[in-house]
Amino acid sequence: MPTTAPTKARLGLSARRNLWAWTFLAAPILFYVSIRLYPTADAIAMSFTNWNIVGKPTFVGLANYAKLFADPLFWKVLHNTFLYLIVGLTISMLLSFLIAYHLDKISFGHGVLRALYFVPHITTAVAMAWVWRWFYQPAPIGLFNDLLIAMGFPQQPFLNSTEQALFAVLAPAIWAGVGFQIVIFLAGLKAIPTVYYEAAAIDGAGPWRVLFEITIPMLRPAIVFLTVTSSIVYLRIFDYVYAMTRGSGGPLDSTKPLVLMIFDTAFKNFEMGYAAAQTVV
Predict the structure, then answer these.
(1) How far apart, in whole angstroms, are the C-alpha atoms of residue 8 and residue 236?
(2) Cα distance between residue 254 and residue 244, in whole Å
(3) Cα dihedral sign, 228-232-237-239
């Protein structure tokens, strides 16, 4: 009998702690369910319907998916999207690592240089897209073509070329994302214990061996983090394409990513069910 009251008190305290914990967790859980899970489930359900926003959705089964996989534009857009991902991720990761690796060895003006590299990342994407669009204009307006002519090279069509337009759009996106990646790489480099480099120096290890056996392996968490976050950015690229091509994704859909196709299908053609199927895919 004497142990009953303390036991009840302990159980009561534990229950109160659980209640407070779930009270504080309820808000983010409710937010996640209402903002993320419900819209996702609704999009999946909508992908099996034919709906033009104003009418009533009509169940069509897998017709939207059959239409999508038979659409040559979808495969072209999917190819463009993965081209944005592969080229953008590869160039940005290599470029940001090289800059961070050498910037880490600089002490004078380190903070100013790091800030200058980071500024494009916090600049409005549409503003940068319009500036770069001006750079790509024909001479004597466009800066790049003026430089090419001054160096004796012919001017290039850039945004007016089906072969160059995608890379011309990707360039400012890479330039804007490199600053964030540099900051993360610098943080990773600062976190590497100097004892590893001291031991390598005693063993007589060369700079390449130190790079590939110490620096890069120790940067693995930063590399994985940047690979995931940057992949999401390039797979969802939209603003640069929309601003630099006036929403067309041209010329001849050569720059159109999947997100822009979904936008056109939903808000220009008002085929919400077909757009939902594209979203699910």
Answers:
(1) 54
(2) 13
(3) negative
Q: Which two tokens stand for residue 182?
A: 């540099």
Q: Which residues of 141-164 are buried (b: 16+ CB within 10 A; e: fewer)?
A: ebebbbeeeeeeeebbebbeeeeb
Give the tens place of pLDDT for each residue, 71-117: 999 999 999 999 999 999 999 999 999 999 999 988 888 888 888 99
Burial of 64 (0-12, 13-18, 19+ CB in 10 A): buried
Written as six digits, the tokens of 104 are 């880490």
Predicted model pTM = 0.84
Q: What is the pLDDT of residues 255-278, one digit of tens each?
A: 999 999 999 999 999 999 999 999
* Other residues' Cβ atoms within 10 Å of the Cβ of residue 185: 23
Name the token pair of 48. 């099996």
Which residue matches tokens 């305290």? 13
Task: With beta carbons less than 8 A apart as the criterion, state whether 95 and 87 touch.
Answer: no
Q: Using CA atoms, how far apart are residues 261 and 78, in angstroms rounded to an integer?
A: 10
